[in-house]
Amino acid sequence: MEARAMKAMKPISITLTVAIVLLASLVENEAQAQEVKITGPLAGAPAVMKLRLYREGRFQIKLNGSYTLQDEFTRSLLLGGQFAFHLTDWLGIGVWGGYTVTQFDTNLTEQIAAKGQNNENNVLSLPSRGGFPNQIGEIEWIAAPQAIFIPLRGKLGLFELLFVDTDFFIFGGVAIIGLKERADTSADGDDCNRVPTTNRCLKSQTSRSSRTAIAPTFGVGLSLYLADYLAMPIEWRALPFAWNTSGTDENGHEKGPFPDDQIDSEDRLFHFNHMVSIGLAFYLPTAPRLTHADQE
Question: What is the largest CA-CA distance in the chain?
């Protein structure tokens, strides 16, 4: 029995011996590496010499075009830009804005205008199918004070031949949005002009009013630096808020019947609105500061 026990213990002893030797070797190598880091020729040297601080202490003037995505009835093309000042290379504050220069109706809007929809019991949703594009909601302009964070920077390479300095940024703030929506109306209103044969209102469809909505805004982007003073930013932005995109009777009043034959604030539905932007950003002063340039 003792001989069998000794024979069984022999592989375990060999394994433990090998493990102890490997552990001692790793500890010794780590200690040597630390010693080189502390006393070697690179001791005290910065990680990067002459690193360009593209943002720190500089003003940014950005011109860009933005296009809304996944809108149900119409999409907006906005022209605008951003003015910002960067306190450090990773933090800035600024104001972004855009103004809608044109709208593009979606295929859904074109189909509704051509074929109509089944809502015989809703006299306000679609008074005239051909006039449907005149009642849908539109974004007119956006203004957004925001903070900008730049957690990552580096280079992008193309076939190891062309390299571009880049940074990844995150932004967040409060957006003020100018909207155009179908004006409040009701089936009993003076502007209804009810047609007896269809029991529909005609004049209310062409009447829209403007209002201002407040919403959070946030997003991410990537800047490609084409020169010390010039970059091409590409970004995605979200603007979640409630509005009546279709101009239709969507809800009844609290504890009331649906439809309620009224177009008002009760008909606004929540939408996760978002857009993409691309543009050019100019930086002042035109020359960025270099880190540790005086230590060479």
Answer: 109
pLDDT of res. 130 = 85
**How many other CB atoms sit within 10 Å of the CB of residue 130?**
12
| pTM recorded for the entire structure | 0.78
Q: Are 200 and 123 in contact (CB under 8 A)?
A: yes
Q: What is the DSSP string of 111-171?
A: HHHHH--S-TT-TTT-S-GGGGGGTS-EEEEEEEEEEEEEEEEEEEEETTTEEEEEEEEEE
d(CA 227, CA 52): 11
What is the C-alpha separation between 273 and 68, in angstroms, rounded? 8
Residue 247 DSSP symbol: -
pLDDT in tens, 201-210: 666 677 889 9
Q: Are 100 and 142 in contact (CB under 8 A)?
A: no
Q: How far is Cα 94 from Cα 88, in angstroms, rounded to an integer? A: 13
* CA within 13 Å, CB half, 223: 30
Query: How far is it, in rounded angstroms, from Cα 263 to Cα 250?
Result: 8
Quick one: DSSP state of residue 83? E
pLDDT one-digit tens code per residue, 118-144: 655 667 788 778 889 999 999 999 999
Per the model's pLDDT, the better-predicted residue between 70 and 216 turns out to be 216
For residues 239 and 227, give the distance between their C-alpha atoms in angstroms, rounded to a whole number: 31
